[in-house]
Amino acid sequence: MESRLLARTNKITNTSGLSPTHLQANLLILPTAHAQSFHDLCRRNPVTCPLLATTPAGNPHTLQPSKIIQSTDFDIRTDCPAYRVYKHGKCIAQRRDILDLWNDDYVGFLIGCSFSFEGALGRAGLKPRHQETGTVVPMYRTNLPLLPAGVFTDATCIVSMRPYRPEDVEKVREVTRPYLSTHGEPVAWGWEGMKRLGIEDIQRPDFGEGPFIREGEVPVFWGCGVTPQIAVESAGDKIDGLVFAHEPGNMLITDLTDEDACIL
Prior knowledge:
The chain is α+β, with helices and mostly antiparallel strands. Helices cover 20% and strands 25% of the residues.
């Protein structure tokens, strides 16, 4: 996969629109002691944390199920364009790879990403605005609680946002609804929906870049795979050792197509 090689050699960043027919994934890597708790968290929160695949402990080259990445030339330590490093719930560094921080106690998790249905939106004449502007999709903290699991308690969900005209919202819902493995249809839309999520200022996202919203458009919100990073923040000192994640907007591009996302 050419896009993964470009990420590995630090030649790309924001992956929205890259390899537009392929499934993209969020990434979280954490010590084995917390792997089962995180697996349970994903199963209890499938809208924001749709689990696609895992790696065996200590093996950065193999995914289960293996069909997600079919190439033997694969490494979760290098194949995202950028990474975040967490310690005691705080992001302490941003890296282009994590090769020198890896050890055999780590387990990787791939989480579905809403970038995967953006090709379908484009084909339906509903191209996401951040692709037009060449910016990173805006992402926001909400007041929606995650169902807890193990050390992951008291966390709330992250949502991504794409603006659309009110008359297009039903079509947007229809197009994205089948993509359950990549967050599915929106969780809220409109200015009242924004207020219900607890978002105060649409121009000040917590991740990504501020949006360009045209007059008459409304915000439309989807579950977001940055949510696991908020779960790590909430766990704080309960997690021993470093945790690694993708930099928001810098995804792992898989070998599956966006059509596969509808049947996973």
